[in-house]
Amino acid sequence: EYDGPFITARILYDRSTEVHQANILFIMFSVSGLQLVAWHFDSDDNRMLYDITLLLVAISFKQTTTTMLPRLAYLTLVDWYILGCFILLALGLIFHTATTIGERSDEVLM
Questions:
Q1: With contact defined as beta carbons under 8 Å apart, do 4 and 10 qualify?
Q2: Which DSSP letter does residue 80 get?
Q3: 3-state secondary structure of 88
Q4: Which residue of 3, 30, 44, 45 is 20 to 30 Å from 98, comparing CA positions?
């Protein structure tokens, strides 16, 4: 038996996620797609520097997006997409590093 004031409030809202998803997905797609430009460079050292720069840009962007999105205890589709982009960037860096090491070892043997 409570005699004090009693107020019940109910707030209904619908959060639009399309804006965040479109901005994040488009930027990460652009950063990952820019890795194709690395093939334009003649020097393998420039390719690796370019790959490292893109990887650092992606990491910085991921850190920025974590402040924009709510904290969840599970990975969303956006998180999986960003992780996939990280993997592609890392594979490109590994491939360019391996080809550089292979070419330099061929030069030493000749």
A1: no
A2: H
A3: helix
A4: 30
